[in-house]
Amino acid sequence: MRPFNLTSSLSKVLGFQAIVKSAFNPSYRAMSIVSTPRPEIDRVIKYWFEGDDVPQKWFRGGPKVDSEIKDHFSALVSQARAAELTPWTAAPKGTLALIILLDQFSRNIFRGSPESYSKDRLGLGIAAEAIAKRFDRQVPVMQQVFFYLTLMHDENLVSQIAGMALCEGLVERCVGEEMMKDFAVNSIKSAQSHMDCIRRFGRFPSRNEVLGRKSTAEEIEYLEKEHSGW
């Protein structure tokens, strides 16, 4: 078996061959960014990553968090989904905020609707380009995983393999930070679960009802045991 090639896999995700080639070249240098104040970016990042309830907000937020996000971020999510916030991709922090709007807040606002997944490819494209430019390495470890979740949310095995490899890299960057290392290890476990599901079914059965897809007998049996909500 040939060894997994992360550069090749990333390039296949959305056809970013040229971008990935330049980004992973040893002579590559990140472009100089002149940062401009963007209160909206800071607002997204602060809401999603600050406070004592962060893990609860991410994984068990429920109707309360859905309502908060709808009340405070609906306008920004609409702009992001209409590709009106492209300037945010000029820097790592803005790119991360845009990915959160597309890949996370869309799920909160449109929960139970096909719209919750309809802009996943847009978020994936932005994330893949950002990863190729190493923007993910320029934010804290806990924030890096949200670049990779766009790959884990994709119903494509190449994306899943790339997401798994990127999550494995998180552990290596957590030297001396046991709490962050635990978070990285849990991210690998999550990536493995996503990848196993796509390898087995070629899609996430938990989305079938929302997307109007008929579940197979095997998927129905799986859904009776698993409640992933992917």
TrEMBL record:
This is DUF924-domain-containing protein. Transmembrane segments: none annotated. It comes from the Eukaryota. It holds the Pfam family DUF924. InterPro entries: DUF924, TPR-like_helical_dom_sf. It comes from Hymenoscyphus albidus. Gene3D superfamilies: Tetratricopeptide repeat domain, TPR-like.
